Amino acid sequence: MKILYLLCLAFVGSASAQTINFNGCHNLFENQNFIFNKTGIDAFNKNIYMTTPINDQQPCGGLGNCEFKIQWNNALTRWEFLGDEGNGTFTAPYLIYYNSTGNNSLSIPPGNTSGTWIENTTVTNGECNGNLTVVNSTMTGDVQGPALGIQEVYKGRIQIFPNPVSDYIQISGINDGKMMQIYNIDGRLIKSEIFDSKVDVSQLIPGAYVLKITTRGFQSHEFKFMKK
User: Fold this and answer.
1) Does the keyword Signal apply (predicted)?
2) Which pick of 147, 155, 163, 190 has the fewest CB atoms within 10 Å?
3) Alpha carbon of 92 to those of 1, 3, 83, 85, 88: distances in Å?
4) DSSP secondary structure string, 172-220?
5) SS3 category, 23
6) Are 197 and 213 in contact (CB under 8 A)?
7) 3-class state of residue 149 by DSSP
8) 3-state secondary structure at position 92
């Protein structure tokens, strides 16, 4: 990344198991998507992701060209979101966000609903509007999902049923749904598709899952369900 002012990100989701989509920090990066592809596995069995192509040609708003990388820092036991120092290299990268509160036993990084991605304001000058949340960013694809233990099957007027379920989940109370994702108990994305009030889960193996629904207004609703 060519400018110290760096970042603002927003993760946007992808159904690909080895791709992360991000969209956020619009003050610095404008409203655009960044696609990270898995490029390898480190010595600690953690996946490494980079925006591609890595050739100093990825535009990032008015900041010029930027490349980004998500990788595990074993010395500090945390995941890091890094910006290149120029020309697409990461010899001395800029730290944009870090997350040490997700499920660090997994090989994939936390999403913006798992643990806390903390903004490194020393680099961003606070231009990314604070830590990553579903309000200021989207981050989907090969990332950890929300913790299963804190989800509810009923939120206000929104309901999912039946639960447990064999074939189809019915959703009521959402009129502006945009996307929906299903995560397994380990936080891995299993399914991602355009919102529909009827969700086919017949191909899932029995167990616990989380259904995440994102609205056109960028609100997020999460529900735990059991597949029979």
Assistant:
1) yes
2) 155
3) 11, 14, 9, 6, 11
4) ES-SSEEEEEEEETTS-EEEEEE--SEEE-TTSPSEEEEEEEEETTS-E
5) strand
6) no
7) helix
8) coil
Extract the tokens encoding 120.
């490194």
User: What's the pTM value of the predicted model, to 2 decimals?
Assistant: 0.61
Take residue 79 and report the two structure tokens written for it: 């995941």
Question: In this structure, are residues 1 and 56 in contact, taking their beta carbons and an 8 Å threshold?
Answer: no
Residue 23 amino acid letter: N
| Structural domains in the chain, sorted by start | 19-141 (no CATH), 159-227 (2.60.40.1930)
Q: Read off the pLDDT band of 102 (50, 70, 90).
A: confident
213 has which bridge partners?
180, 221
Q: Of the candidates 160, 143, 181, 125, which has an alpha carbon nearest to the alpha carbon of residue 49?
A: 143
Q: Across-strand partners of 79?
A: 72, 99
Among residues 113, 84, 77, which one has the least CA distance to residue 98? 77
In degrees, rounded to 5, the angle at the alpha carbon of residue 224 between the alpha carbons of residues 215 and 170 is: 60
What are 151-189's pLDDT values in tens digits?
444 445 788 889 889 999 999 888 888 989 998 877 788
Give the DSSP H/E element, type plus range, for residue 49: strand 47-51
Q: Measured between alpha carbons, how far is 175 from 47 in angstroms, rounded to an integer?
A: 37
Rounded Cα gap, residues 140 and 13, in angstroms: 3
The identity of residue 108, as a single letter, is I
Tell me: the pLDDT tens digits for 19-74? Answer: 999 999 888 877 888 889 999 999 999 999 998 754 445 556 544 567 899 999 99
